Amino acid sequence: MATTYLPTLKQLQYLLALRDHGHFGRAAEACFVTQSTLSAGLRELETLIGVTLVERTRRVVRFTPLGERIAAKARIVLREAEELGDMARAAGRPLSGDMRMSVIPTIAPFMLPRILPRLRRDYPDLKLFLREEPSGPACEGLHNGRTDCVLLALPFTCGEVASQALFDDRLFVAFQPQDMPNLPPKVPAEAIDETRLLLLEDGHCLKDHALSACNRPELRAEATMLGTSLHTIVQMVDNGLGMTMLPEMAVNAGILEHTSIVARPLDAVNATRTIALVWRRSSPRERDFQLLAGVLAEAP
Q: Rounded to an integer, what is the distance from CA 74 to the centroid of its chain?
């Protein structure tokens, strides 16, 4: 019987690191090896399968079309290999071992400080590695195996995932008192001045949730989109530059402390976003994610 030589997982890791970083030095750092070790491993892989995967020049790393396809397949193979370990952990103690979770920026600073101390106390064997990033990159990272689960706000299209809703988070309008005098306890969507509205830039789902809740097309055209954090926008509102919309969790976490800003609930049909935990449907750690969702749901 002929001997079959198969790529090793280490070789596939080197290939994928080079694909993700586009640079031999950075790929080697990500794999915790020297650049010469990574280069040698990739040459061995190319010799093993008898094709060139990467075109090497002094300035550019360029994958061949076949190299791109093999890198995509390597990502799937490595994810499946990681899930072998996940299966073993899932059969042992709940919520133990490493877990990588992405959290969107309009949730992370307001919700995590409330819940992380309890996770450390009740599940001391869990090593939770957190990554803060917008919803799009977070979902992409989930599907390519960079992260295990994502804490985000729905509605958002995240592909074929399993999810568990945690709680609803109301939207508030934040403004200077003189900008909107004599308002009722809730702010009608039609009372918002589209020329004064400050929102996060494209890529942040809170912007889409806010605009959708108001159901006013002119807001999307006239509102000022800023590539900043909610904390920065709050400072701009406090300095009289406009008004904004904030999630209730940010208001409850004290984002308006030491400002003169007033925040009142938005009066609209869909004036909430749903906080949810999502994970790959194929993941063997579903029980762990459900347990984690139960803890996260107590954050409010």
A: 23
Which class in CATH covers the domain with range 9-87? mainly alpha
Q: How far apart are CA 247 and CA 249, in angstroms?
A: 5
Output DSSP code: residue 146. S
Instruction: Enumerate the H helices of the chain as residue ranges.
Output: 9-21, 24-31, 35-49, 65-91, 108-122, 135-143, 205-214, 217-222, 230-238, 248-252, 286-296
CATH (one of 3.40.50.410, 3.10.129.10, 3.40.190.290, 3.40.50.2300) for 95-300: 3.40.190.290
Residue spans per domain, the chain:
9-87, 95-300
CA within 13 Å, CB half, 240: 1
What is the reported pLDDT for 3? 47
Helix axes of 108-122 and 286-296: crossing angle, nearest 10 degrees = 110
pLDDT tens, residue by residue, 230-271: 999 999 999 998 899 999 999 999 999 999 999 999 998 889
Distance of CA 71 to the CA centre of its chain: 23
Residues 6+ apart with CB under 8 A from 146: 100
Q: How do residues 7-55 score in pLDDT, each as one tens digit?
A: 888 888 899 888 888 888 888 888 888 988 998 998 988 888 888 888 8
What are the CA-CA distances from residue 134 to residues 101, 105, 154, 156 (Å)?
13, 6, 13, 11
- E strand or H helix at 162: strand 161-175
- The β-bridge partners of 111 are none
CB atoms within 10 A of CB 216: 17
